[in-house]
Amino acid sequence: MSLEPPPTYSPETPSAATADVEHAVAEPQILLIPPANSVSFQKGYLGAEGERAAIEGELQVKCPDGYQWDKVSISLRTVETANGSEIELGNSELVLSSAVEHAPQRSSFPFSIPLPADTPQCVHTPQSSLTHTLSAHLLRSGAGVHAISRSLLVHTRRYTSRPHELTIAPETRTLDDPTRVEVQIPRTTFVAGELLPVYVTVPVPRRELVTEQALRLRNIRAELVRSIQLKDDDAQESVEADVQIQTDSSTDDDANEGSSADPSASSPIGKRGINSSNFAQEAATSSSSDARGDVRVVSFSGASCRLHPTQPIRVRLILHPPTGSPDIPHQALPPGDYYYLESDDDCASITQNTLLHSVTFSLRVHATFMNMSNHTERTSTITIPVTIIPPTARLPEVEHDIDAAYHKKHDRPPERTVRVEDGDAPRYEGVPGPSFLANAPPPFEEREAPPPFSTTAPEASTSSGLPTFMESEREIYLPAHDDPSMPPPSLPPSDLVIEGEGTLFGFTASDRFDGYSDEADRSFTPPPSMEMASRDPDVTRLANLDGTTAMEALEFALDHQEGISHEHLPPPPPPPMDDPSDPPPSIDSAFRAPGDSQTATPQVPAPAFTQVAEETGTHLSVDSPDGHGGEAHAPPPYVVPEHVEHHNVAHPPPYVDLVPNTRDH
Asked: Where do the segments described as Disordered lie (predicted)?
């Protein structure tokens, strides 16, 4: 194996490399950035009455020391190109600075270029464009020195004057082939970024279509289509672009029998498939462009449904535009490193006409039917032209400080002032608070207050730390459902409600029906399997018994089942344990209210006594047989002879002396 020699490199003179580096370093850099706290060069509401819009930003020049320039200028040029022709719609140039000898050169130049009120929004297609180019030029005098420039495309957004309200004017289109389909929208004019509701109704079809022709409804889908048409240069007239959306079928006369001569109109199931989710991919890719226009689906929605023999199909579809309302050109930057940058597809978002372009929008609703007799499918389409207008300009926002200062200066002073109540006076530690009545003694401190007469009253914590578990449970507050202080519970996210829906146009949410909802609400119980059925007892012989014998067998089975159930009853629960939350008896137990956990000792009322007529020789013990001496700390009861007549006297009755037991001595 022979070893190849290493490659040789051509030597390079150090002087040439140094010259290239110096030339690269000496080249100045030009940066075009939007204003502070903004992501767009446009400031103001373009097209709104009484508003002024401009392209504003900052030009920064970074050059090495010793580099001298003569003039710095910036220009805004609007150009429309189509079919190889170019038309300049506007050109504005602004000189930012001119060089002065022996003067320090600036590196930052703010600029503002006014925009005419009729400036259109930019348009970008593969064959044509309408662009606004912002160019910065750095000129330097001297022979053989070229000018340095930097160009950047800027996007413009138009707005509508305020106030501008759209009235409700429902638009309805129908289709009767192969069955009736009704499509309704609230109006034909919408604001850019506004939701577009579509109401589709399919009445109950004729019985012959379902039974004889085996017609089935697969799905319904709606598409918002944007069409950019190019105009002829010579006649300056609009040329109808014959670009069609790729649909599954067409509505030809041959479709009445459920078939069509067009291979794309009807095809076997095995070749095309009948998956309902295919329409999403088809709608997303259904865009086409040629030398005379560009057609693109900007939003689509759909739902799977089927015909019903008794109820009409009512489906509401909501089309969401790809982007919302254009951002305010001078709003603050959102938090984070990522923020939305304008794209070319979002520029042609409104209906507009220029010298070479015509931007229009239309709503297309496709109803896909299936013929089960010959396994073919066809799609019927309804088209409604719609107009998309720019969003409304917002009202100027006044800062809160300025608004408050204005009201403070111009509002009338209050008629009376409200004084702070005495009860709100601060309390200091170790000092009693103020009294409610004049010349009254100070209130009790917590440590000197008498015990409460009811355990239901809140008791202060005995420790200076966190409350105990029982104290926390006692302080739990469960407000009632109608308590006004409670905030209302958060409602579940409801369906989108459109003003006027169900009364002025469309139908309500309760009227929607796709043909599957009735089955979804039912709870079907499947039949038992063969293995489960084999485990059931055989009751065939019971069917041949007479009524008396059958009732006796049924009673016997019930009694047997009841005996089995009693045998398997769980054991009784254990006796309840002592409640650990019951406090022990205290010195103020007698002051507790009856029924509390700390019950006082029952006291026996002392009846009136007289002198005993005869002395009893019975030796009494502390534990009397009448059971009044159950507790050790209670006083002994009085001996009340039942056979002796008593008289009411003023002095207290004598106690019975306990005679000591002589047997113990």
From this structure: 233-274, 407-466, 512-536, 564-665
Conformational region of residue 586, where left means phi above 0, alpha means psi within -120 to 50, and beta covers everything else: beta
Distances (CA, A) of 104 to 60, 65, 107, 289, 364: 15, 11, 10, 54, 63
Peptide bond into 178 cis (omega under 30): yes
Task: Enumerate residues 6+ apart whose C-beta is below 8 A from 613.
Answer: 644
Check pLDDT > 70 for residue 90: yes
Per-residue pLDDT at 314? 94
Confidence at residue 358, expressed as pLDDT on a 0 to 100 scale: 92
Contact residues for 539 (Cβ-Cβ < 8 A; gap 6+): none
Least confident piece of the model among 148-162, 459-473, 564-578: 459-473
User: Global pTM?
Assistant: 0.57
CB 133 within 8 Å of CB 70: no
Q: How many Å from the N-terminal Cα to the C-terminal Cα in the chain?
A: 134
Distance of alpha carbon 626 from alpha carbon 642, whole angstroms: 13
pLDDT in tens, 293-315: 789 999 999 999 989 888 999 99
Burial class, 437, CB count within 10 angstroms (exposed 0-12 / middle 13-18 / buried 19+)? exposed
Residue with the larger pLDDT of the pair 622 and 143: 143
What span, in angstroms and rounded, lies between the C-alpha atoms of 114 and 54?
4
d(CA 128, CA 85): 9
Q: Are 610 and 647 a contacting pair, CB within 8 Å? A: yes
Lowest mean pLDDT among 345-359, 557-571, 589-603: 589-603
| Bridge partners, 370 (sequence order) | 216, 377
Tell me the backbone φ, ψ of residue 606, rounded to 5 degrees.
Answer: -85, 115
Q: What percent of the chain has pLDDT over 70?
A: 54
3 state SS for 261-329: CCCCCCCCHHHHCCCCCHHHHHHHHCCEEECCEEEEEEEEEEEECCCCCCCCEEEEEEECCCCCCCCCC
Q: Residue 191: beta bridge partners?
A: 389
Instruction: For residue 104, give the nearest of 146, 69, 58, 148 by alpha carbon.
Output: 69
Pull the structure tokens for residue 61.
Answer: 């020049």
Residue 399 has pLDDT above 80, yes or no: no
Structure tokens at 103: 């003067």
Closest-CA residue to 233 (of 78, 82, 79): 82
Q: Which domains does the chain have, with CATH numbers?
A: 23-154 (2.60.40.840), 171-269+276-330+346-389 (2.60.40.640)
- Rounded CA-CA distance 350/193 in Å is 10
